[in-house]
Design brief:
By secondary structure, the chain is of the alpha/beta class. Helix content is 55%, strand content 8%. The chain has a five-stranded parallel sheet, with helices on both faces. A three-stranded antiparallel sheet has the order 1-3-2. α6 packs parallel to α8 and α18 runs parallel beside α20. The radius of gyration is 31 Å and the shape is flat. The N and C termini lie far apart (66 Å). The C terminus is likely disordered.
């Protein structure tokens, strides 16, 4: 926003979010306590221009409320709102005795700060009033975190930061007292006493006052050694795991999240739910807040999870770990992933235990009490995930999988479905350009019908159109409709829909005793060219009981090869029909005259 005075107005509204700020107060900020006679009218003009600049949705947040204006803003829509929320949660945790969690929340609040507040706002009055308030709020929050850290006996860790702050604020007695305690408890009694003497001289010379009663009490405690230097008891370590070598205060903070494409507005609701859980989800002691994003291959699970992970990076103050577990086609075991995670957390590679159980124990020890975000992409089973769950104490676990992972205790599951028409059009338009889609809306819808709302298929279709600017969308739509093998058209470079479907098919669970093979059921549906089927119809096709047919159909739903039943019918979209037909053709070549081929 280029107009300096409009920036002042916006800053005043943001700093007083959800509170009415009067026109007179805004005028004082805009004209630095010397507003002209026309100030009220001019402020109204600035607000009108702000509404125009912000657009219809955002401008509706600025409400006219006597004697001025009110800006409606959610708690997590501004840094100050998030800062306040972290402080509130820190106070709640401290009241419950969770100093570890309280300190972590305060650290997250402080991580939101960037340089001097309001430095780029051209209003001396606003900086004096609101800026001083913000600076004081920041210092108070720092003092609260130091209190928590000292209570957790992390006195040596906080000394460097306290030294820097006391040099900047030498007359702030609360900070001086905390530094004195931290020095004394770190075995530096003479430095603590010397700091008190220097501070007393400064107070007398500059303010003509003796140290406060609180600071004098700290001084007396040190002199009488009532507050003896203390260090935490060393944790018990396995004889074979020399953890002391790597269990240092300054451990690495990994930042391993891959980049992602632009988010889709069609996924904004799912993204908001996932972010909310990752930032506010609370679990009983000993458990880790875990979210599982599940859905068929190519539906955008990884993209959504990574968008959420990037959005909540500020709350994972100790870093982010990421691993692609390979899915069902090439699954990685925890034995392969844990050595990398341990090395990323600061363990020298030659000191990583050989025993798998020791690796898991060490991983839990190093992550306990920290606030990490662990992202496990493309998990194929709970067995892959369990050894990689971090130790309790504030970390978050985010998993993507084609399976529901229902046996992962305490996990919150988010089922991601195909895009609706609006979301599909948005994605296609984002690739080939809205003008190209707008010129052939009906043809674009035909392409998207063939893609069945699957983001991977839509991206491939968009890429093919982008690579062939001489194609009309109608021409491509006809190719998709007339292709003997639709999935051959939905392939470009190393991207294809068929490999995703192959992986889903390979993940089908085994046939129960005396049951119907789900893979054979799927092939039968392809042979029949079915777009939907009921359990009773499937039972007739296979000559089995309806219960057995339903068991096989449900296994296909579980493997994402069939839509969940609605109105008694299981449905196959265009992609699943094409894939089922291909499977049936392949089987027909190998096994002529099978029962389901005759039934179809």
């Amino acid at each position: 926003m280029s107009a300096p005075r409009q920036r002042v107005v916006l800053a005043a509204l943001l700093l007083n979010a959800n509170r009415v700020i009067s026109v007179d107060r805004i005028a004082e900020y805009v004209w630095d306590d010397a507003p002209p006679p026309s100030a009220a009218a001019t402020v109204r003009t600035y607000v009108m221009r702000l509404r125009q600049l912000l657009g219809e949705h955002a401008s509706a947040r600025i409400l006219t409320r006597a004697p001025g204006y009110l800006l409606e803003l959610g708690e997590h829509e501004s840094d100050l709102g998030q800062f306040t929320a972290h402080r509130r949660r820190a106070a709640e945790l401290a009241e419950r005795g969770d100093l570890e969690g309280s300190s972590a929340e305060l650290a997250e609040a402080l991580a939101l700060w960037r340089e001097e507040p309001l430095a780029d706002i051209p209003s001396r009055t606003l900086r004096d009033v609101e800026g001083r308030y913000l600076q004081e709020l920041r210092l108070q929050t720092m003092e609260l975190r130091f209190d928590a850290e000292l209570a957790l006996l992390r006195h040596a860790e906080v000394v460097p930061e306290l030294v820097r702050l006391v040099r900047k604020h030498p007359l702030r007695e609360a900070l001086v007292g905390k530094l004195m305690l931290a020095l004394f408890r770190s075995g530096r009694q003479s430095e603590a006493l010397d700091l008190y003497r220097r501070t007393r001289v400064l107070l007398v010379e500059q303010l003509g006052a003796e140290p406060s009663a609180e600071l004098r009490e700290v001084h007396r405690s040190i002199l009488s050694a009532h507050d003896r230097p203390r260090t935490p008891e060393p944790p018990e370590q396995p004889a074979t795991a020399p953890a002391a070598v790597w269990d240092r205060p300054c451990r690495p903070s990994p930042a391993q999240l891959p980049s992602v494409p632009l988010p889709l507005s069609a996924r904004s609701g799912a993204l908001a739910r996932l972010q909310h859980f990752l930032t506010t989800g609370a679990m009983p002691a000993g458990m880790v807040a875990t979210a599982v994003v599940t859905g068929r291959g190519g539906v955008g699970k990884s993209a959504l999870a990574l968008h959420a992970a990037h959005a909540v990076r500020g709350s994972s103050v100790h870093g982010q770990l990421y691993a692609d577990l390979g899915g069902a086609a090439r699954p990685l075991t925890a034995r392969e992933v844990l050595p990398r995670f341990l090395a990323d957390l600061g363990v020298p590679r030659d000191e990583i235990p050989e025993e798998e159980s020791e690796r898991e124990s060490l991983y839990r020890s190093l992550t306990a009490g920290r606030r990490l975000l662990v992202v496990l992409d493309s998990a194929s089973s709970t067995a892959q995930v369990r050894p990689l769950i971090p130790g309790s104490g504030g970390s978050r676990l985010l998993v993507t999988s084609r399976r529901r992972l229902a046996d992962l205790d305490g996990a919150r599951t988010l089922l991601l479905g195909p895009l609706d028409e609006a979301g599909s059009l948005e994605l296609l338009g984002g690739i080939v350009g809205p003008a190209r889609v707008g010129a052939e809306p009906q043809a674009a819808r035909s392409v998207l019908t063939a893609c069945a709302g699957l983001p991977l298929a839509i991206r491939i279709a968009g890429t093919r159109l982008l690579e062939r600017p001489h194609w009309s969308i109608g021409h491509f739509a006809r190719r998709l409709a007339e292709a003997p093998r639709l999935l051959d058209e939905l392939c470009t470079g190393d991207l294809g829909v068929r490999p995703c479907l192959d992986a889903d098919h390979a993940g089908l669970r085994r046939t129960p005793p005396a049951g119907v093979d789900p893979a054979e059921m799927f092939t039968a549906l392809g042979a029949a060219g079915a777009s939907s089927v009921s359990s009773s119809r499937a039972a007739v096709m296979f000559g089995c009981s309806e219960v057995q047919a339903e068991e096989a159909l449900d296994a296909l739903v579980e493997a994402n090869l069939l839509g969940a039943p609605a109105g008694g019918l299981y449905r196959l979209d265009a992609l699943l029909r094409a894939y089922a037909r291909e499977r049936a053709q392949t089987v027909a070549v190998r096994q002529h005259g099978s029962p389901y081929m005759r039934a179809g």
